[in-house]
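Worked problem 6 (solution included).
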Amino acid sequence: MRRASDPGDARRVGLHPTPKAAENLGHLQGAWSRLLGEAVSGAAEVDAVITALSGGRGRDAPPHPRQLFA
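Solution. The predicted structure is:
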């Protein structure tokens, strides 16, 4: 993660993902995909699990920032 001061308000900082953070997130997503692939039996069940884990946003929705850095 890269930390940068907010140019409009020096009391605030922004956290921005680095290329390494994006790579690590990809590894995590791959691991979860493998684990879920072993735990569920079909595409419909996978979609139901993804929807439940994504707070109802579904397979194609980007992760909520709170989920990335919780």
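Discussion: The longest helix spans residues 19-39.
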